[in-house]
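step 3/5: co-fold with zinc ion
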Amino acid sequence: MLYRRLLSLAVVVALLGVGVDAAEAKAAKKPTKVAAASKSSRKGPRSIGAPNAGHLEGAMLLKGSRTLKQKEGSHSWALPELVRLLQRASAKVAKKHKSSVMLVGDLSGRTGGFLERHGSHQSGRDADVGFFVMNSKGKPVNVRHFVAFDGSGKGRELPWAMFDDARNWDLIEALLQDDKATVRYLFVTPPLKARLLAQATRKHARPELIARAAAAMMSPQEDVHDDHVHVRIACPESMRDVCIEEAMPRVGGGDAGPAKGARAAVDTDGAEEKPSEAKPAAEAPPSDGANEAK
Ligand SMILES: [Zn+2]
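step 4/5: write tokens
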């Protein structure tokens, strides 16, 4: 009896061991691939420095497609990882929602560096993506401008506009589940984050995905990102030597720019210190409150 019990215990341990080995082997495989990529991409695209203090080499230009349009006058250069992520995400949403067109705003300048109206967007890892919109009858509409929403999902300035929970969550899901690029942050306002998570629950998204979304979505400051989601990808493994993951702490508000007035056109998102949820928003200079990149 005891022997049998021990035997079955041994089997369980062995099985667990196999599981762990398999996972380890999988994890161990990745770096090899990365190391190879690192050598070959030495002269290729590089994100150098931090999102709010950096620049970009070998950038790729995002172009419009059947499923992706750009806001007029947008800066559309970024790491290929980000450009392709946006292309794939727009295609995925359009696959589920016929004729859906994702609206993309600024990425980075061709060689990165300071970008007007933004604190970050300097190193090719940031992109502003407009929220999907419905009309008052719940019919999806494609828009050419970013539309701001309050927590109830109503357009702040467009009474007919409604936050399209279904498409917006599908976008978040597509971004987070992409198997080639890693999304580090999704900046959205807390009420819209809550809406998106509620939609995920309604759609019975996997708990791991919901947890991941809850961790990735954050708002560096109150009242920002109510008309778009700011997508930041992680430093690609091959660029770890030059790419700085987190935004640099802001020094004296130097590039925080014009501060007076309610919604000064400065994107402060990337100028944050580590955007950890624990960090009180009040730490930011009050002058920057409620600023937004349009
Ligand atoms: Zn942004």
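step 5/5: annotate
The longest helix spans residues 2-40.
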